[in-house]
Amino acid sequence: MRDDRDADQLAKIKAAFSRSQKRYGSKRIHRDLIADGTHVSERRVARIMRENRVSARLHKRRKPRTTDSDHSLKPSPNLLEQQFECTVPNRVWFAPSRDIHDANALPGSGHYLRR
């Protein structure tokens, strides 16, 4: 008798599990079954899933990537040729934005940083 009810619940669990693209665990499957109008306990859903080896796919962890220096690409050309002096605004940009404290120019440097 219990096996018959479990078999009936298993069909509903497998349907909800396939709708979730095999990603939901027993808690979410239980929530889906309740939303569909099937009243069953969360522990029963977990037991039925465990006994029938219905388990969610594990999320594949993303491996962090670091700088790849081993490539055949050429570096960017050095357009300034180490000559950082500039007399006209918006010609030479040489600092990352986090280092620019003044919106108009770096104090005392003589380098223009206007837009």
Which structural class matches the secondary elements?
mainly alpha
Uncertain runs with pLDDT below 50, 5 residues or more? none
Distance between the termini: 80 Å
Instruction: Note the beta-strand portion.
Output: under 5%
Task: Please give the largest β-sheet.
Answer: none
Number of helices: 3
Q: Name the overall outline.
A: rod-shaped
H-E string: HHH
Average of per-residue pLDDT values: 80
The amount of helix comes to 25-40%
Query: What's the total number of strands?
Result: 0
Rg computed from alpha carbons, rounded to a whole number of angstroms = 31 Å
Looking at this protein, list some descriptive labels.
115 residues; mainly alpha; 3 helices; 33% helix
Question: If you had to describe this structure to a student in words, what would you say it looks like?
Answer:
It contains three helices and no strands. It is an all-alpha fold and about 120 residues long. The longest helix is centred in the first third of the chain and has 18 residues. The radius of gyration is 31 Å and the shape is rod-shaped.
